Predict the structure of NADH-ubiquinone oxidoreductase chain 4L.
Amino acid sequence: MYYKYIIVIVILLLLGRWGVVLNRGHFIIIIISIELILLAAFFLFLINSIEIDLLIEQIFTIMGLTIAAAESAIGLAIMVAHYRIRGTIILKSFSSLRG
């Protein structure tokens, strides 16, 4: 019954992986691709919790999505700070970060 959702999850995982592999130099696209992979994983947890009727997995899914959003916000803040300093967001220039 849930095989349609599993197909969507596999497509999301493949699109996320494809985005990371093909766009190694673009920081924003890599962040979006990682978020897509996380979305697919949390969607799988949600479908599993609906199928076996566990509320705790649904709560963990919501918490995980919140943590993923915070992670993305921190990554984008680092990118904005790097752009202000260097003037570019190409990943090759990230090797010169010092902290």
Remarks:
- The two ends are 51 Å apart (CA to CA).
- The first helix runs from residue 3 to 22.
